[in-house]
Specification:
The structure is a single chain. The protein is mainly alpha-helical and 98 residues long. The protein is 78% helix and 6% strand. Strands 1-2 form a two-stranded antiparallel sheet. Helix 3 runs antiparallel to helix 5. It is flat. The mean pLDDT is 89.
């Protein structure tokens, strides 16, 4: 099975499994990061997505797959990510105390 990526190269299931395995192996490292470090990572993800060039790649891929116009991608897909990033920024320190 092949999964299409936004980089216009097919991603194979073994490649996805490898990525998952590497992420899973990194869990113990992440367990020792501070709230500030985690928030910085969330901010980097959000800044990457909202950059004009990266958003264009995402919008083109979603348009190709689902025929959604760019404004709808921004309002729905990207808006959800923005809200999630804001929620993480607001709640992370408290969540880490629990």
């Amino acid at each position: 099975m092949t999964v299409v990526s936004t980089h216009r190269q097919p991603v194979t299931m073994p490649a996805l499994q490898d990525l998952f395995d590497r992420q899973h192996a990194h869990v113990p490292v992440m367990a020792h990061t501070s709230a500030r470090q985690r928030i910085e990572r969330v901010d980097r993800i959000w800044n990457y997505i909202k950059s004009e060039s990266n958003f264009q790649v995402l919008a083109e891929a979603i348009h190709k797959d689902f025929r959604k116009p760019a404004f709808e991608v921004w309002a729905t897909e990207v808006g959800i990510i923005k809200q999630a990033a804001l929620a993480v920024r607001r709640g992370l320190r408290q969540w880490m105390m629990d």
